[in-house]
Amino acid sequence: MLVRHLSLTDFRNYKTAEVTLERGPNLFVGSNGQGKTNLVEALGYLSTLGSHRVSNDQALIRGAEDSAIVRARLEHDGRELLVELQLNRSGANRAQVNRAAIKPRELPRYISTVLFAPEDLALIRGEPSTRRRFIDALLGAKSPRLLGVFADYDRVLRQRNALLKSARASGLKDATLPTLELWNERLVELGAEIMFERIGIVDALGPFVREAYQAVAGSDQEPTLDVVLSILSDHPEADSDVGGPETTEVPADRLSREGLADAFRAALEKVRRAERDRGITLCGPHRDDILFRLNDLPAKGYASHGESWSFALALKLACAELLRADSVTGDPIVILDDVFAELDQRRRGRLADAVKDYEQVLITAAVFDDVPEELTAHTVRISAGTIVDASDD
């Protein structure tokens, strides 16, 4: 999978931008705030339907414009595709492939990227929601149909929460909420599928994480990852980070969709009174976590800054390797956004070795000399939202 050309209109600080990209490494260089990250953010959005920097699409539209357009000409096995996305300030976003309209959520079928940025340190040190988004983005990239499952679960969750809040406000009892059971079953059906898929992808990712950590850190430390299910917690109603080390082992009888569904129903029954009192759904995949360990200790709270960086980078490299192993459209596009400035010389070299054989790698850097020479073959220089120079060094 290659991006041959990227075109932007009214995206972030670009009125227009036209960038030709090459096979192998492509380096975007410019001072901070000039628009380097905006270019790779646009490509990342096409493959994940989200930004790694903001949660609101409105921030991606330049100034007071009504819309922004991202176009990418892709190539795989000699076949070209034109992928287009229009982000609208009001109304639904629109997408096309080869000028034929598609639903925006279908875009990840055509382009796959793995992006690593300084913000990814939050995977190790941040909140459970960050780790859930990470694992769900990987699931969406590997199996785009799951994007619809996530959207359906969020819709059902909102509806169920609205019903619980309404019941709390009016003092209604469970017996007067016949529709709650209907929402429960739909929540369980979708939630069990999400939990099942998360467990499967985490198990598949583990060996790649261990290999990637060794590649970037060169140490004998052992990174591991496990899904923490709120439905198995002794206190799923707690407001702190759900679960804990003692709840990471998922019993064998819960590993199937049916087993997870049964456990979810039992957990909902357990928290029924607390949900009614608080007006919110207290267990399910929306409250789960992924526990990262280094040498059997939780990375959050125990890993040093350098170890946390290495773990986060290993997670993203592992995603790229997993997608590469399963892909029928070639390698994912690897994006390294302002990463090399955060690494010492040794880790820079190790990272360059880890990514150099991917079909296409996109790199942003404020300082040209921060990037290993083998990744600077095609350099694009950027200033104030303008492509000022593109050359093969």
From TrEMBL:
Domain RecF/RecN/SMC N-terminal: residue ranges: 3-365
Annotated signal peptide: none
Main localization (coarse): cytoplasm
Location in or out of the cell: Cytoplasm
Residues the record lists as binding ATP: 30-37
Domain of life: Bacteria
Keywords assigned: ATP-binding, Cytoplasm, DNA damage, DNA repair, DNA replication, DNA-binding, Nucleotide-binding, SOS response
NCBIfam families with a match to the protein in the record: recf
Function: The RecF protein is involved in DNA metabolism; it is required for DNA replication and normal SOS inducibility. RecF binds preferentially to single-stranded, linear DNA. It also seems to bind ATP.
Record family assignment: Belongs to the RecF family.
Name of the protein in its database record: DNA replication and repair protein RecF
Species, as recorded: Herbiconiux daphne
